[in-house]
Amino acid sequence: MVLLKIVETTLLVSLISAIVGTIYRLYFHPLRRIPGPKLAALTWWYEFYFDVIKPGQYVFHIKKLHEEYGIIIANSTELGPIIRITPDEIHVNDFGVLDTIYAPPSSRRDKYARNLKQLRVPGSVGSTVSFDVHKKRREALVPFFSKRNLCDVISSHAVDKSPLNLSDVLFAFSNERSMAENFLFSHEVNNLADEKKAASLRRNTYQLSRGVHRNKHMPWIPDLLEKLPKSMTKPIMPPGLVDMFALLAVSFLQRRIFRDGPTGKESLYDSVLDNTSLPESEKSLPRLHNEGALLVLAGTESLAKTLSIVFYHLISNSAILAKLRKELKSLPDNVTWTQLEQFPYLSAVIEEGNRLAFGVTARTARISYEPLTYTPSQYVINPTMFSKSYAIPQGTPVSTTTLSAHTAASVFPDPFTFEPERWLGENGRVLRKFQMAFGKGGRKCLGIELARDEVVEYG
C-alpha cells in the first residue's frame, strides 16, 4: 500500500512538473519569441530524433527549418534568419553576425557544455567550456602549432594503372603526419605501408564518430563502458583506436618524444609538461591522454577530408587541374611557404576544398557573457522582410553551422559546385571572412596554420 502511494505521488509530481515545464518553455522562457517548431522548444527529444534515430541529420533539418520559418516571395523562399532549435539554444543563418557569435579573443565566449558531451575527451582544449580555462590551455599549446610515403603509394598505382582508394590512403597519411611527424611519437606509425591497414583505420574512426550523437543524449552508456574492465571493453572497440590510445599513454610516460629525434622538435606533451604557468592538475595523465586523442583525431579527419575533396574535384575537372598545373610549373626550386602563399590559384583550390569539407559539421555554439540583440543584417537576402529584432539573454547557446554558412547561395552562388575562381581577386578577399572550416573567433581551431601548410605541401 505504501509502495503504491509512493508510485502515485511520483507520477503526479512528474505530471505536474511536465505541465509546468511546458507552460514555462512556451510562454515564459526568454527565447519564447524566437521562431521555431514548438516541439523543439518543449523538449530535447526533438533533437534526439534527428541526431540519433535519423543519425546525424539535425544539421540538415536545421537548414530546412530556416526555409520553413522564412517567407515565400515570387516563388522563392527567403530563409528565416533565426530559429530556436532546442529549449535553450538558437541557430542563426546570417553572415552579418558571425563576428558577434564567434567573437575575437577580446570578447569572452564559453562553449556549450551539453554539446561537448559527445566528444568524450573532458579536459582537452577543444572540450573546454570556460573561456578563461581554455585560454590557459591554448596558450600552452600555441607555440607548438606555429608555422614521402604518400607519393610512393600513389606512384606505385600510377605505374601499374591499378585503382587506388584515395580516401583510405589520405586518411592514413594525415593520421601518420599528426601522430608521428607533427606532435606525438618518437617513432613512425607507418600506416601508409599497408593499404588494408589504412582502410581499416578509416573505418574504425568512422565507426567511432557514429556514436558522438548518442554520447550527447545518452552519456550514461559511455560512462558505464568506461567503468568496466578493459578486458571487457577492448573487444568492442575499433582495433586501430585501441592501438592509438595505448601509444598515447606510452608517449606521455616517455616524455621525450622528438626531443632526441632527428627533427629536434619537442612534442605536444613536452609543451604542456614544461609549461610553468600551468598547475599540476593540468598535467595529469587523464587530461593529456584526452588532449592527445582529440588532437590526433581532429588533425587526421580534417586534413584527410579536405585532401580527398580536393583530389576528387581535380580528377573530375580537367580544366581546373590544367589551371593548377600551369601555375605550379612556375614554382621556383626550393620554394618557401611565403612564396607558395603568393600563388593565387593554388590558394583558391585549397580554400574551395576547405569550404566543401565543412570542417566540424556539428553545431559549435558559443555563449556570451553579456546580453545580445539580433537584427537581420545586409547578408539576409531581404532584411526588410525580417526587420524584427530579438533579444538574446546572456548565457544562451548560439550557433551557425558550417553547412549553413558554406552553402548560403547569397554569398556562395551555386554553392555545391567546386569553383576555385570564386576565391580570386577582391571577391576572394571578402569571402575569406566567411570561411568557417577551422572555426572562427577566439576559439577557432588551434592547428589552423599547421593544417593549411600540410594541405599546401601535400595537396
Strand order, sheet with most strands: 3-4-9-6-5
Q: How would you name the CATH homologous superfamily? A: Cytochrome P450
The count of strands amounts to 9
State which percent range the strand residues make up: 5-15%
Taken from the alpha-carbon principal axes, the silhouette is globular
| Discrete helix count | 22
Number of domains: 1
Please state the second-level CATH architecture.
Orthogonal Bundle
The CATH topology annotation reads as Cytochrome p450
Sequence stretches where pLDDT stays below 50 over 5 or more residues = 178-182, 256-265
Major beta sheet summary = 5 strands, mixed
The level-1 CATH class: Mainly Alpha
Helix content: 40-55%
- Tell me the Rg in angstroms: 24 Å
Mean pLDDT comes to 79
Class derived from helix and strand content: alpha+beta
Spatial separation of the terminal alpha carbons: 73 Å
Report on the structure:
This protein is an alpha+beta fold. The protein has one domain (31-458): Orthogonal Bundle (Cytochrome p450). 52% of the residues lie in helices and 7% in strands. It has helices at residues 2-28, 38-42, 45-53, 58-68, 98-101, 113-116, 131-141, 149-160, 166-183, 195-209, 212-217, 220-227, 230-233, 239-254, 268-273, 285-316, 318-328, 337-340, 344-357, 402-406, 425-431, 448-458; strands spanning 71-73, 76-78, 82-86, 89-92, 109-111, 366-368, 372-374, 390-392, 397-399. The strands form three sheets. Strands 3-4-9-6-5 form a five-stranded mixed beta sheet. Strands 1-2 form a two-stranded antiparallel ribbon. It has a two-stranded antiparallel sheet with strand order 7-8. Strand 3 and strand 4 form a beta hairpin. Helix 14 (239-254) packs across helix 16 (285-316), helix 16 (285-316) packs across helix 19 and helix 16 (285-316) runs parallel beside helix 22. It is globular. The model is unreliable at 178-182 and 256-265 (pLDDT under 50).
